[in-house]
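Batch job 17 of 40 flagged for manual review because the log was empty.
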Amino acid sequence: MAANSLYYEQFLAGNFQVHCARLEDPGTPLDTRMELATEIRDSFDLYNLQYSQSFLNIFLLSFNTVLNPLTRPQQVDNTTHGLWALILESFNHVPHNDILHAKILNMLNPAMDLIQINNEHNAALAVHIVTDLHKNFRNQLSGRFQTFLDFKIVVYELFGKTAETLLVSHKNLRATGKPAPARIDPPTQSFMETIQCFLLILSIFQMYSHINA
């Protein structure tokens, strides 16, 4: 039974590596890359990620390669935007256990980058990832929450400009009767992100109250 189990795990690992290799291949078409990422996300239980360090290593390396340098942040709702969202959803599927503990920065750092450079929808997903990582690994990450707070200061400093941009957009809509071209706001110009800032800052200060005391 043990031999069969090992063989099955090796078989799955081989398939997983093939999927990830195709995912990060620069020559893979975007639509195919989207399909591969979807299959990987939907097969997490099958690949037994919660127990296997090797699966986690392959997955994080491959998905981070797709995020940078293979694709770039988008400010419109297109396939690349959807791919980034799918990868962030996949990060949320990873169990927060001892196996992830050794690779935590491989999830935290790209999520922090996304919060700052992506659009507000994907930034919202990244905020959840960062929050959950801090909740579950607060001892290891206690020295890293300041980076997030520094970014949030920038968001609040730009709040006046964000409000002005939104008001101008509504004014143009009333004047012309036509909506502006579809665009997803960047995190630094987003009401959604501004609200999330406040809630997450409260959460962070509660988590690290022993440091602030």
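Reviewer: the log was empty due to a logging misconfiguration, but the result itself is present. The chain is about 75% helix and 0% strand. Unflagging and moving on to job 18.
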